[in-house]
Design a protein that fits this description.
single chain, about 300 residues, mainly alpha, Four Helix Bundle (Hemerythrin (Met), subunit A), 2 domains, about 75% helix, about 0% strand, heme biosynthesis, cell membrane, UbiA_prenylTrfase_CS, membrane
């Protein structure tokens, strides 16, 4: 099943290789890394800061390419992913794997040489966790796949922070925790209206295993936990009132979305779940955007 693809016969184009890097996912990764870098105490030369963000960008792309290489069989089944370069045969599997490995080694090596070893170690750990723990181990085996595997997507702000400070602190762990607890409601909202896709691919997402009612309760639980965690940078003194107020408002709206999902009848077409999924993306950009604005305001004060 691994190499079953719908070959189109179309030659690979530059955009196909870019698609291998998962640019939409990459945008979230890079943005949160930038937020961590800007919010961190201390300064980093602008050139080194640009190199650090480049390394995060390339590392995220590397992990995405290896993920697409490994998941090419189930990607060919799911409507959301069957148009990707590997299921359609536009890019050979060996090329995707080679690209991912080369980019991973380049990004970690450059981070170690140009920035510091702490940021490089975190970047290497992120790539390895996403590839081996989430993609190869958890994704096809447990409905807790995105709960545990969500750690991979939560490291980027810590990497940005470590690029400046050379270490890990409670404040950077708080930034990690925001994304870690955001990930389950984000992906479970998607899973509610993509249950059929996951069924066909044999991926044990929570709605397929525990049912829709249990999934909706879990979405609410994680959203409730996310609310105080979103305030943690402000409570720890790592962010100011601009961030604190923004986090409170954004977290409150997330709770409203989760309650709407919980109360929506199963025959309503998952409109609330689709709205929550869209809002969850906005939430992550907005809360880390607020962190950037807050840090910039403090620097100018």
């Amino acid at each position: 099943m691994r190499d079953a693809v719908a070959v189109t016969g179309a030659p690979a184009q530059v955009r196909d290789y870019i698609q291998l890097l998962k640019p939409r996912v990459m945008s979230l990764v890079v943005f949160t890394a930038v937020a961590g870098l800007i919010a961190a105490p201390g300064t980093l030369h602008p050139v080194l800061a640009a190199v650090a963000i480049l390394c995060v960008t390339v590392g995220a792309g590397a992990a995405g390419a290896i993920n697409m290489w490994y998941d090419r069989d189930i990607d060919a089944i799911m409507s959301r992913t069957r148009g990707r370069p590997l299921p359609t045969g536009r890019v050979p599997a060996a090329e995707a794997l080679s690209l991912g490995v080369v980019l991973a080694l380049f990004s970690v090596g450059l981070m170690a040489v140009a920035v510091n070893y702490a940021a490089a170690a975190l970047l290497a750990g992120t790539i390895l966790f996403y590839v081996f723990v989430y993609t190869m181990w958890l994704k096809r085996r447990t409905p807790q796949n995105i709960v545990i595997g969500g750690a991979a997507g939560a490291f980027p702000p810590m990497i940005g922070w470590a690029a400046v400070t050379g270490d890990v602190s409670f404040a950077s762990i708080a930034l990690f925790a925001i994304i870690f607890f955001w990930t389950p409601p984000h992906f479970w909202a998607l899973a509610l209206f993509k249950t059929g896709d996951y069924d066909k691919a044999g991926v044990p997402m929570l709605p397929n295993v525990a049912g829709r009612a249990a999934t909706k309760r879990q979405i609410l639980l994680y959203t409730v936990l996310l609310f105080p965690i979103g305030l943690a940078p402000w409570l720890l003194g790592a962010a100011g009132s601009v961030y604190g107020l923004s986090a409170a408002v954004l977290g409150g709206l997330f709770l409203v979305s989760a309650l709407a999902v919980l109360r929506e009848p199963d025959d309503a077409g998952d409109k609330a779940a689709k709205r929550m999924f869209g809002y969850s993306i906005f939430y992550l950009f907005a809360i880390f955007g607020a962190l950037i604005v807050d840090a910039a305001s403090a620097a100018m004060a």
